[in-house]
Specification:
This protein has 193 residues and is mainly alpha-helical. Helices cover 58% and strands 0% of the residues.
Length: 193
């Protein structure tokens, strides 16, 4: 039985499997990049003031600020595409999909930041959380709506005319009247002649 709004047939399996495999590979890469110990002589204190690091980077000038800001945006940005691909649904609201994906990206970013507190040379930074979450949202908005529209068009072209992948319900579901249990009777059963 196919879930309502999901991609049909083999395309669903391929998209979900590819999305899942790429998602696991990307998370492994993120873990390797962010949770390796660094051999540094000095570590700055943790930044808990929003946008303080971004302002400090922008104060350096544009070419120097582009690298740390770009790294912050790009680290988890693929999740904006891979999470909906692993979910495999075509007919969902843009806002609902965006909220779920961004929330998952933000939670993953918080998890990475918490794990980094135990790694030598790594420091938690609230601006990294903000940039990672913004990167997930931007990637989702840039790719997912257009990809879903394209996949819906392809599914409509391949679907038989009698089967509609999306549409209103076909009518009311028939119901069966409930039959109660007969009341207990003290009368003897009828005798056979």
């Amino acid at each position: 039985m196919q879930r309502q709004g999901s991609i049909g047939g083999f395309a669903a399996i391929h998209v979900r499997v590819a999305g899942g495999v790429l998602l696991v590979a990307h998370l492994a890469l993120v873990a390797w990049l962010t949770l390796r110990p660094l051999d540094v002589p000095w570590v700055p204190p943790a930044n808990l003031r929003p946008l303080a690091t971004v302002r400090a980077d922008l104060a350096l000038g544009w070419p120097e600020a582009a690298r740390p800001l770009g790294e912050g945006l790009a680290l988890l940005a693929p999740l904006g595409v891979l999470l909906p691909a692993a979910h495999g649904r075509l007919h969902v609201s843009l806002l609902g999909s965006l909220v779920r994906t961004v929330a998952a990206g933000a939670l993953l970013s918080v998890g990475v930041a918490l794990l980094q507190t135990a790694v030598p040379g790594r420091v938690a930074d609230v601006d990294t959380l903000l940039l990672n979450t913004a990167g997930v949202a931007l990637a989702h908005l840039a790719v997912v709506p257009a990809a879903r529209v394209r996949l819906r068009r392809r599914a409509r072209r391949r679907a038989p005319t009698a089967v509609r992948p999306e549409g209103p319900a076909q009518g009311r579901t028939p119901t069966i009247a409930r039959v109660g249990i007969a009341p207990w009777s003290d009368a003897p059963p009828p005798s056979a002649p």
